[in-house]
Amino acid sequence: MNQLRQALINTTAARHSRQWTADLIISEPDQFEALLHYCFSKDELISHRACWVLEFVCHRRLEWVLPEMDLLIMGIQGMTSCEKQCESCLRPLAKIYELVSEKYAQNDANFVDQITPEHTRNIVEHCFDWLIGNHKVATKAYAMQTLFHLRNTQPWISDQLKQILLAQRKEHSAAYQARSKNILLKLSKENFSN
């Protein structure tokens, strides 16, 4: 783990740096669980860097997160009192939720078999918290997309998501408004076809 810790310390926000460290993890899969632990450690020097790298790893090896869903969800749950450093962690973690939920919504057998109803409930709860909380636009955008993907897991999600997006759409940036408009359009098409 010391080699991984040093690699994380040396990781910068530059894309090539995050990718280099992700490639290291991909070449040594046994380091994946350690990476997850670093994401949720109290070590402010590396926790946000570990989250950046985790996102890059998940873009290429998303299935690796499945056996670690409990750890991922519990770790995110522990980030309830979000400080500035924590916000740097939430954006990539929200993106990972979006990637997982997309596979789940596509009925990917691995994801449907291993994502439990309790997992989806926790993910939904986190995403609604991020959507209504004081978080950056990227975190909110990933959260709304995740909620859209998981809307069929609980009957009330679509209505609640629609209500929040309509109430908040004028309060946020053009990027937020564009994403929410797209999701609202999809939700209204579903309601029209039902």
Secondary structural class: mainly alpha
Specify the overall morphology.
globular
Helix content: over 70%
Poorly predicted regions are none
How many strands, what sense, and barrel or not for the largest sheet?
none
Strand content: under 5%
Distance between the termini: 53 Å
User: What is the residue-mean pLDDT, rounded to a whole number?
Assistant: 92
Number of distinct beta strands: 0
Rg value: 17 Å
Number of domains: 2
Q: How do the helices and strands follow one another from N- to C-terminus?
A: HHHHHHHHHHH
The helix count comes to 11
Protein name: Adenylosuccinate lyase
Note down, in words, how this protein is organized.
It comes from Membranihabitans marinus. This is Adenylosuccinate lyase. It contains 11 helices and no strands. Helices cover 74% and strands 0% of the residues. With 194 residues, the chain is an all-alpha fold. Helix 10 packs antiparallel against helix 11. The chain folds into 2 domains: 1-78, no CATH class; 81-194.
